[in-house]
């Protein structure tokens, strides 16, 4: 049932302010403002190394979490696409944990990676949305994402629920390893509790995004740029646009612009820049200036401070409320999803069942 929505994808985007507190509720002790994971069959304090593997959108959730595991847990992370991970014969550290992420829990390459990691003596944590799935059954520990059934082929709410789950796990690792103080943890938990409200505000950008998608629907290629956790989010934005609108898109680390993709920029090329005001914002502004100087059209997704400080020609801005950096990827996912959604609707594609794609990829 799509409710009042035209597509399951829209319904699932709009469900996020409800499912996210549900997921956080499972992993947080709200009264004491602490992370409270279900008991794991091993001690997080002893984790020396984390490997993350997944496919598609689930991989990008992992790539965002990589920054959190390193920041809060001070644990080295190795992340790879499951179809590479399974054949790479990568040496895995003793005392290492492998995290596999999957909405369906049935993705063939992710499952094969899980089995490889287990053979190598790794403890495997599965972050899955379908608790009865094969990946959930075979893992040593399961952290469910609790997004509810996701029908649209383009993953939306499962992605943000993966982020919510992984953020809690990263805080738990940080605490277990003694790198996070109680007060820092409380601050992070308070920030997590703000996410549903921030998401609801982000959803009000929908009419503005619908207008702006007219520009994107005319484009042949779209570039997405970001730094830090907004870099994997840029890749996620590009994937979402590609899969449902069939417009070619690429996500790049903003700092890589000069190393190749800048050659693509001309007045026909929209560039979506995901850049809240943070410690790398000024760097991203210089990238935007480079794009503008070559006639590229910028759509900047930012906050009030960022909007005030970035002023380059031919720029459109989508302004989100100010928020703590750790939760920004969850909230910035909303405009990223809506950009793809409205563009695809304008293009007249089959949004929920895009051509050539299946919801669950159970063959290699
Ligand atoms: O079920 P999984 O999370 O393992 O699926 C992984 C990818 O196939 C999936 O995320 C795919 O990239 C989506 N269609 C993206 O929207």
From TrEMBL:
Gene Ontology CC terms: cytosol
Enzyme Commission number, as recorded: 2.6.1.16
Primary subcellular site in the record, as a coarse category: cytoplasm
GO biological process, one term: amino sugar biosynthetic process
Sequence ranges assigned to domain SIS in this UniProt record: 40-179, 212-354
Broad class of enzyme this protein falls into: transferase
Keyword vocabulary terms for this entry: Aminotransferase, Cytoplasm, Glutamine amidotransferase, Repeat, Transferase
Catalysed transformations (reactions): D-fructose 6-phosphate + L-glutamine = D-glucosamine 6-phosphate + L-glutamate
GO terms of molecular function: carbohydrate derivative binding; glutamine-fructose-6-phosphate transaminase (isomerizing) activity
Active site, UniProt feature: 359 (for fru-6p isomerization activity)
Subcellular location per the Swiss-Prot or TrEMBL entry: Cytoplasm
UniProt subunit comment: Homodimer.
Role played: Catalyzes the first step in hexosamine metabolism, converting fructose-6P into glucosamine-6P using glutamine as a nitrogen source.
Name this protein carries in UniProt: Glutamine--fructose-6-phosphate aminotransferase [isomerizing]
């Amino acid at each position: 049932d799509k409710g009042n929505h035209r597509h399951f994808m829209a319904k699932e985007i709009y469900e996020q302010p409800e499912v996210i507190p549900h997921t956080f509720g499972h992993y947080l002790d709200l009264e004491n403002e602490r992370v409270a994971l279900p008991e794991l069959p091993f001690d997080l304090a002893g984790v020396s190394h984390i490997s993350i593997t997944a496919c598609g959108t689930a991989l990008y959730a992992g790539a965002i979490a990589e920054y959190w595991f390193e920041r809060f847990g001070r644990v080295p992370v190795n992340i790879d696409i499951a179809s590479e991970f399974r054949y790479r014969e990568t040496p895995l550290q003793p005392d290492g944990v492998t995290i596999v992420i999957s909405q369906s829990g049935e993705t063939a390459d992710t499952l094969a990676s899980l089995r490889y990691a287990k053979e190598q003596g790794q403890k495997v944590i599965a972050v899955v949305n379908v608790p009865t799935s094969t990946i959930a059954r075979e893992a040593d520990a399961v952290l469910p994402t609790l997004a509810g059934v996701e029908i649209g082929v383009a993953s939306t709410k499962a992605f943000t629920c993966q982020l919510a789950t992984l953020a809690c796990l990263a805080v738990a690792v940080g605490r277990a390893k003694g790198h996070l103080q109680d007060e820092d943890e409380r601050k992070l938990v308070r920030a997590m509790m703000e996410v549903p409200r921030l998401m609801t505000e982000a959803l009000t950008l929908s009419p503005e995004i619908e207008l702006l998608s007219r520009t994107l629907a005319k484009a042949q290629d779209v570039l997405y740029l970001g730094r830090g956790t907004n870099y994997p989010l840029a890749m996620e934005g590009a994937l979402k646009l590609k899969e449902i609108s069939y417009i070619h898109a690429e996500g790049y680390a903003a700092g890589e612009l000069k190393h190749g993709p800048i050659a693509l920029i001309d007045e026909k090329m929209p560039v979506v820049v995901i850049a809240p005001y943070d410690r790398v914002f000024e760097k991203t502004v210089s990238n935007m200036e480079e794009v503008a100087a070559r006639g590229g059209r910028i759509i900047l997704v930012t906050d009030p401070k960022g909007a005030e400080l970035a002023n380059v020609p031919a720029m459109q801005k989508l302004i989100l409320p100010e928020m703590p950096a750790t939760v920004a990827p969850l909230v910035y996912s909303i405009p990223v999803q809506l950009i793809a959604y409205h563009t695809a609707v304008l293009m007249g594609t089959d949004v929920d069942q895009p051509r050539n794609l299946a919801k669950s990829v159970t063959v290699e």
